């Protein structure tokens, strides 16, 4: 038997994707084989395709940062999961496929109930938003915060979780996306026509409690300047290379040495493999919030898994508010 995956054949735009067939093998001793049901389409997928990453993948490879699916085979040493279980994995790459093989020890339990198109954004976008907000910045009700890049998958997650936490929010996005920010109670700022530093300084002369920066670059420095004493900037945007990673880390260290009472941090999901407990706790919390209707991920578009090229083209258009998801045919 065979299964199909969507691979990047060379560096470039969505046109470099190809659908290939692979042999459906039995999982190794510690693996589970997962029939993919839902996969997010996210910015790291695009960056990996262009080679914009500190750790560039060799082509060919299948992108795909996460997957939710059903276990359809397990290796002989797997005891925690069984055939038929609903599970997820934070794969980083490899999830643009009809089947995914993954170390069973790294699988994430997924409840049976939720709409998987709504559940799959929890694996990356919502875990980033939740942990930057509650573990890094440790926000409290009434805190005043700025979300840089407020209309994408992580941005809309920050808006929903921020409203739930009782925050006073400002968000940066293009004018056409301001209605989404307003819907979640945030004050929108148009990055094309407004100087966000000036807007915030006039509105909040005492400074902000937290800044969530998904853009990096000049936004890091300018956002940091807006903090009050005791405030914190958390950068979660992916650096595009080794030099930019070192620059970001160096900048963060330098800012934390300044005697002004402000702090900065860089967030990354990579630590999930070394310290899984907080991630498992927070994913469990997010699944419960979804089940209770307290969060409702914004889904801009749904595509079949094998139409990942079209989904990537839409993401790169810059017109997307929220999340794009790939789904198995039976879920469309």
The major sheet is characterized as:
7 strands, mixed
Number of H- or I-type helical stretches: 10
Helix content: 25-40%
Taken in chain order, the helices and strands follow as: EEEHEEEEHHEHEHEHEHEHEHEHE
Q: What's the CATH class of the largest domain, please?
A: Alpha Beta
- What's the CATH superfamily of the largest domain, by name? NAD(P)-binding Rossmann-like Domain
Structure write-up:
- This protein has helices spanning 43-50, 116-119, 125-136, 153-164, 178-183, 196-203, 218-225, 242-257, 276-291, 308-316, and strands spanning 2-8, 17-23, 31-41, 67-74, 86-89, 99-103, 108-109, 144-148, 168-173, 187-190, 208-213, 227-235, 263-266, 299-304, 323-327.
- It is α/β, with parallel strands linked by helices.
- The protein has two domains: 2-110 and 298-331, Quinone Oxidoreductase, Chain A, domain 1, CATH 3.90.180.10; 125-270, NAD(P)-binding Rossmann-like Domain (Rossmann fold, 3-Layer(aba) Sandwich).
- The strands form three sheets. Strands 3, 4, 5, 6, 7, 14 and 15 form a seven-stranded mixed β-sheet that branches.
- Strand 14, helix 10 (308-316) and strand 15 (323-327) form a beta-alpha-beta unit.
């Amino acid at each position: 038997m065979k299964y199909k995956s969507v691979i990047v054949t060379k560096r470039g735009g969505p046109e470099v994707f190809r659908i290939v067939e692979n042999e459906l093998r039995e999982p190794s001793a510690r693996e589970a084989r997962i029939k993919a049901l839902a996969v997010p389409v996210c910015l790291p997928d695009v960056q990996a395709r262009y080679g914009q990453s500190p750790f560039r993948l060799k082509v060919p490879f299948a992108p795909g940062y996460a997957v939710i699916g059903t276990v359809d085979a397990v290796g002989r040493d797997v005891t925690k999961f069984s055939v038929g279980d609903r599970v997820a994995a934070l794969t980083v790459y490899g999830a643009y496929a009809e089947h995914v093989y993954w170390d069973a020890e790294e699988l994430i339990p997924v409840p049976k109930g939720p709409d998987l198109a709504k559940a799959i954004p929890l694996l990356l976008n919502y875990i980033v938003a939740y942990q930057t907000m509650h573990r890094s910045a440790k926000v409290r009700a009434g805190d005043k915060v700025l979300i840089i890049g407020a209309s994408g998958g992580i941005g809309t997650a920050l808006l929903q979780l921020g409203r739930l936490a009782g925050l006073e929010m400002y968000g940066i996005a293009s004018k056409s996306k301001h209605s989404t920010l307003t819907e979640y109670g945030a004050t929108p700022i148009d990055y094309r026509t407004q100087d966000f530093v000036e807007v915030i300084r006039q509105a909040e002369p005492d400074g902000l409690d937290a800044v969530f920066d998904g853009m990096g670059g000049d936004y890091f420095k300018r956002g940091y300047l807006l903090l009050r004493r005791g405030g914190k900037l958390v950068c979660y945007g992916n650096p595009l290379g080794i030099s930019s990673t070192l620059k970001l880390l160096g900048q963060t260290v330098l800012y934390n040495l300044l005697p002004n009472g402000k702090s900065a941090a860089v967030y990354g999901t990579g630590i999930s493999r070394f310290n899984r407990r907080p991630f498992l706790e927070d994913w469990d919390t997010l699944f419960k919030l979804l089940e209770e209707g307290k969060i409702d991920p914004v889904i801009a578009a749904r595509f079949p898994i094998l139409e990942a090229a079209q989904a990537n083209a839409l993401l790169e258009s810059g017109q997307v508010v929220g999340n794009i998801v790939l789904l198995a045919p039976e879920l469309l």
